[in-house]
Amino acid sequence: MKLRRLSAFLALAVALAMAAPSCNKPELPQPKPVVTTDDDPSDDGPTDLATEPAACTNKVVAHRGGSSESGNPDNSRASLKYTMSLKCYAMECDIYWTKDNNVVIAHAANTYFINNLKPWEHTLLELRKAGKLKNGEELPTLEEFLDIVQVEGNCTKLCLDIKNLDGNLTAYPIKAVQRACEIIKSRKAEKFCEFICTSNETVAAAAANCMVVYGIPVGWMANKTPAGHKAKGFSWANLSAASYMTPYGEGVRTVDEFKNAGMAISVFNIDKKAGDGNAVYSDEAVNYYVSRYNDLRFICTNYPSWLLNKLNN
Question: How many domains does the chain have?
Answer without folding.
Answer: 1
